[in-house]
Design brief:
The structure is a homodimer of 375-residue chains.
Chain A (H helix, E strand, L loop, with lengths): L7 E9 L6 H11 L11 H6 L3 E9 L2 E9 L7 H9 L8 E7 L2 H4 L8 H8 L8 E6 L6 H13 L4 E4 L11 H19 L4 E3 L9 H10 L4 E4 L1 H4 L2 H9 L3 E4 L13 E2 L1 H13 L2 E5 L9 H12 L9 E5 L7 H8 L4 E3 L2 H4 L4 H16 L2
Parallel strand pairs in A: 4-10, 5-6, 5-13, 6-7, 8-9, 9-11, 11-12, 12-13
Antiparallel strand pairs in A: 1-3, 1-4, 2-3
Helix pairs in contact in A: 6-7, 6-15, 10-11, 11-12
Chain lengths: 375, 375
């Protein structure tokens, strides 16, 4: 937890001003709200220097739009992930027109977090050393199926050559498919398929659990031989990512469920900042996001920014896999490979399930991707 | 965890349709997204009956606005709070124009959660049996002060007669004020003030912690003699509320930091549903929200809906205290008592700190409230 006292966290906020608001005053309001929560002067003078956010730059970006760069002493986030989140977008979430468009964590803060243990290279290695093409991911679904039925789907996806088969994020520990039985059967089916095909498919169970239950699910998953897990950190706190990366040797695949309202319009956290700058250093090896061209509204530009943010150099933090999901169609995967590049994972579900035979549909997808990438 | 197989969770969604969208199709899309995440027919027929959300009612509510009531088998949320949250507003958070305006949890689901252990009556009793007036809450702030300085502020607020003194939500375990020393000193200062005045002020430390750290902070708080705690569950998962209510005998005060984007416009969760119908049954004794008339934009109507939702009869679940905060001015507290009623807690910070002497300012507020309520 050692860090230089001079290190500062730099956060870029794009402020959308209401009629008559002054940009300096709005930036100052953010700086106060995120730290002292008191009006100017209602605190000792040394707190101004040590605690209140410092306005580093203020620049107009359009009519009524101003970009403010604020810096904060790294010590303010000294208690880890929850307080970092609080500092970045805690109480200002109740204001209007505050969009976090940049986040620079100094080395001392980044080094407090484990970062991805595997990242792109490690997941590629875990999946049999695949190079030159994107990875393919799919889910055993829907919830309500029995462990035997889910395992059968896992087996079909694995036999078809899908690289990573995960649980659906709505599957946890319901009566229809209790966690332990499901994980053991699904992992067993994938290993059996690998043995039959010579493949290296991995199965990632969804371990999101009520407080106090995560450790047990991880233990069960590891005992079953799983190499990675799926977590929904927006339901249970982003710090679960850090914990998984630090406390286990599992690959960590992040599901974004419940995060949607953060990602809209002129108020929230820009997708590339949320999934890249914030989630990646915590220890996410791969991050699922809803992609353009699917069933949710998001721009291709935002998706490419997420991809960049997960892959670009960042101190000691390994590049993590962007996982484009949310309704990517099998037929369009080659198109998206050209757009997003090969260091992408494609999460394909519905358009595989819509075909008559899941194994054949999977195999066709894998072959199409191989052919497209010439590997 | 026993429940009738026929019990259903009813969720009301207000759908804002884009040009040309059909209300039935939008409602169906929500029902599928929240359960099977597959297109119609790409799953076994029994899943339609057992898992897919059922459209119970569909009604126009304005131009392009339709209210859809969907019901889901209670078993889908059988794994507790994270999966309940997933079911209510997981992946639909990535759609547009989906506002949760109602949530009815059947008795079997409500009884899985502890509900408030104290609620309004229990907190009143804990604060010396105060009746006939609202409770007054304030915070020791800002972060950056030392434990000695924070304790001095706690003492001043307690001597002035504030009923509940809490940590600021930005104060966790930073170097400036390490958790244990801060809690012991602040609690000590409040007890000392009580001994001097004959008062019954309570001190609630902020126990939000990285994963795995909550239990230790709770243990320290209890050992110091604290009767309640402050938690920021949107940073660390709503299930922390359930855990605190179930595993400790502490009063649970909820801070809403980071939840702001859920509460805006036509997409998210209506404040009364989020803080009342969802957070209250988990075990919140008191819930802070940003009030109209403060420094954040929210309508008085929304605030009154929150108040109602926290107080109204709900199965075995005790009424919880609405805590109006976010910049309520001391001078306006009598006004807000008339609007919100006496079963409210007022969280007053800045306008106390803006006065020369915190103890005197607190005493004047308490006296004004007593006079206004004739107690």
């Amino acid at each position: 937890m050692e860090q230089s006292p001079d290190e500062r966290i730099r956060i870029t906020y794009l402020l959308t001003l209401a009629e008559g608001e002054m940009p300096e005053a709005r930036a100052r309001a953010v700086a106060l709200e995120q730290t002292v929560e008191l009006p100017d002067g209602c605190y000792p003078r040394r707190i101004e220097e040590q605690v209140v956010g410092r306005l580093e730059a203020l620049e107009q970006r359009g009519p009524g739009r101003w970009q403010a760069i604020l810096s904060f002493a790294a010590a303010l986030a000294g208690d880890g992930v929850p307080q970092l989140l609080n500092l970045v977008f805690g109480n200002v979430s109740f204001q209007r027109g505050v969009l976090v468009t940049g986040l620079e964590l100094p080395s001392g803060v980044l080094r407090r977090f484990p970062g991805p243990r595997y990242g792109i290279a490690g997941i590629r290695a875990g999946c049999g050393g695949i190079r030159g093409r994107p990875l393919l991911c799919s889910a055993a679904k829907p919830q309500g199926l029995s462990p035997v039925e889910l395992a059968e789907l896992c087996g079909a996806l694995a036999k078809g050559g899908i690289d990573i088969v995960k649980d659906d994020h709505g599957v946890t520990d319901q009566a229809a498919a209790p966690f332990r039985e499901r994980v053991e059967r699904c992992q067993g089916a994938v290993l059996e398929a690998n043995a039959a095909t010579g493949g290296s498919t991995l199965y990632f169970p969804h371990v999101t659990a009520p407080l106090g239950g995560l450790e047990e699910r991880v233990t069960i998953a590891r005992a079953a031989g799983c190499r990675g897990v799926l977590i929904s950190p927006f339901l249970v706190g982003l710090d679960t990512i850090r914990w998984l990366a630090e406390s286990t040797e599992l690959m960590v695949l992040v599901h974004p469920t419940f995060s949607g309202t953060l990602l809209r319009g002129d108020h929230g956290i820009a997708p590339a900042v949320l999934f890249g700058r914030l989630v990646r250093p915590l220890g996410a090896d791969a991050v699922i996001y809803v992609s353009a061209g699917g069933r949710f509204p998001i721009s291709e530009q935002d998706c490419e920014a997420i991809n960049t943010s997960l892959r670009e150099p960042l101190d000691h933090v390994r590049p993590a896999f962007p996982v484009a999901g949310g309704g990517v169609d099998v037929e369009r995967v080659p198109h998206w490979i050209d757009r997003y590049g090969v260091d992408t994972m494609f999460l394909v579900g519905s358009s595989l399930y819509a075909q008559a035979d899941l194994e054949t549909a999977s195999r066709r997808l894998v072959e199409a991707v191989r052919e497209h990438c010439d590997v």
